[in-house]
Amino acid sequence: MSLRDAYHWPSRTPSRKGSAIKLNKTLRDHLDDLEYKFTVSTDLLKRVTERFVSELKKGLTTEPGDIPMVPTWVTSCPDGSETGSYLALDMGGTNLRICEVDVQGNGKFDIMQNKYRMPQALKTGTRDELFDYIATCVKKFVDENHPEGDKQLEIGFTFSYPCKQPSIDEAILIAWTKGFDIAGVEGESIVPMFNDALKRVGCNNVTLNAVLNDTTGTLVASNYTKPGTEAGVIFGTGCNACYIERFDEIPKLHGYNFPADMPMIINCEWCDFDNQHVVLPRTKYDLAIDADHPRPGLQTYEKMIAGCYMGDILRRILLDLHEQGILFAGQNVTKLRDPLAMDTSVLSMIEVDPFENLDETQQLLENTYGLTTTEEERHLIRRVCELIGTRAARLSACGVCAIVLKTKKQSLMVGTDGSVYNKYPHFKERLEAAFREILGEEIGSKVITTPAEDGSGVGAALVSALQAKGKALTKDILRSRVKN
Ligand code: GLC
């Protein structure tokens, strides 16, 4: 999926941790303080998970809460009989991808795709500029691959930003995330914007038939190739999950009178977990990130764990230590003051520095930020990276475990994707260790994350195929249901 490409990740396997860190007293005192603030104990993991379960439950009712638990209207996973050719559009943070997926049934597919760079300026431009760009890319792809122009093509749109979904073919943006900030889209339905743009650019043979979140695509695509997968999680630029719920467990939809055991994929949209600030151990760096964010007060959980923010947490800690006279004394830290100066791949590179004297870290800090360090300072910096990365993995585990506890499962297969999961050193091991701490060995070791199939491409095509079979509910189908 596209989030994989958000950063230039180092490709090496991680090295082991450096020898026991020997630091002078001042550095040691500061590191001890950070250790204390960033360490999430088993007890705290359990408390966060407990609160998470109650928020997941609340989100399924009409009571207001932090986690919206969005019904996706996808009421079945593929059964292997799905076939046909579908277009998929994946609007990620960095790239726009258009795919044509030939779904061949029984877990098989063929995929052809074009990737287009998403110009940075579009993320804060106007809504017509954004949708015209998307529609132009779709048209280019269709003109190249279907020059005859007379075939009607159906497209599934993977739009991985928090949305309300009144039906499979409608999505209303709740709030922009991942660095986007475009006026006139929040609170609005994105489908007419997309359709109007298709018309404007003269792309008349494409019809949108499904809008989905990347987690939904990940679950459906993973379930297609690994039947039994019941949750989809993204640990990437953003972090979110979906899972299969029973209709009778979703009180807010009871008016539709669907059968009690009818499955429905629920997109948790859990980035807003703990916006009430009850349980997450926020540090002054988390508070500062929130205060400087275009949406302060929102996305509390995501701001502590997602790839979009981990680099910024490190940057703020380094600046703070500098201001206290601990690091980079007498040096020019201007480059570090740029809010976009550090992305998560920096932590990743520092964590895998193979040299005892952390020479690669030295090169990185010098070449990118013009900063020199002593060896012990670099050891402190590496430990700070480990603290940030470990906290992210452990808190991420709470959401997954909350799904296990909410659904009373004894095991869970999780289709998993995202740059942090796929590339961040030790993330998977740290995550799985936390599963066992929270749920106990017996169940925790049966929560299995597996790298997903391409959810934003293959998943979108499969959801389109399900829609064509009436297993992803359109507004027309839903209108025909009696709503109390
Ligand atoms: C953000 C978005 C969510 C998406 C996740 C992973 O949390 O709100 O919709 O699934 O990132 O990409």
TrEMBL record:
MF GO annotations: ATP binding; D-glucose binding; fructokinase activity; glucokinase activity; mannokinase activity
One GO cellular component, as annotated: mitochondrion
Transmembrane segments: none
Kinase is among the record's keywords: yes
GO biological process: fructose metabolic process; glucose metabolic process; glycolytic process; intracellular glucose homeostasis; mannose metabolic process
Keywords, ordered alphabetically: ATP-binding, Glycolysis, Kinase, Nucleotide-binding, Transferase
EC class of the enzyme, as a word: transferase
Pathway recorded for this protein: Carbohydrate metabolism; hexose metabolism; Carbohydrate degradation; glycolysis; D-glyceraldehyde 3-phosphate and glycerone phosphate from D-glucose: step 1/4
Residues covered by the Hexokinase C-terminal domain: 231-465
Reaction(s) the record says it catalyses: a D-hexose + ATP = a D-hexose 6-phosphate + ADP + H(+); D-fructose + ATP = D-fructose 6-phosphate + ADP + H(+); D-glucose + ATP = D-glucose 6-phosphate + ADP + H(+)
Hexokinase N-terminal domain boundaries: 31-224
EC number(s) stated in the UniProt entry for this protein: 2.7.1.-
InterPro entries: ATPase_NBD (IPR043129), Hexokinase (IPR001312), Hexokinase_BS (IPR019807), Hexokinase_C (IPR022673), Hexokinase_N (IPR022672)
Pfam families: Hexokinase_1 (PF00349), Hexokinase_2 (PF03727)
Keyword Nucleotide-binding: yes
Family: Belongs to the hexokinase family.
Name of the featured protein: Phosphotransferase
